[in-house]
Amino acid sequence: MKDKGPYFFKKVVNIPIYGGKFIIIFSNNPSKVAMTVNCNVDNVQNLWAHSFHNFLTKGYESFAVCYNFWSLNPVTTGVLLHEINHAGNRLLLSREVEPDFENDEPECYLKGWMADEVEKFMKKCNIV
After folding, report:
1. What range does the domain containing 79 cover?
2. Which neighbouring-strand residues pair with 13?
């Protein structure tokens, strides 16, 4: 995609079963992203695709994915899932869910739900 002026789209969703908030951000504005995920702006200067955790949103533990669709690097399906995997793993770890390669249904349902939420928001923002 070609470069686009500053933009910031955010959606906050309650995480089913595990609790907390899942935040989806589409932005090329490092300052707004840093404020949203409560981190130093220096940590998001090269904004392309990131996941964030260990921060609170209105008192709730939060997990976020952020994508810059107007970066020089394309945001592919693999990039979308890469960050969802990071966020999902951090959430499961914080809930003391042990990885189980024989029964990975809890992980698959959670990450599938996260991917569906990202896709719905992409459609709402006319990104897909």
Report:
1. 8-124
2. 22
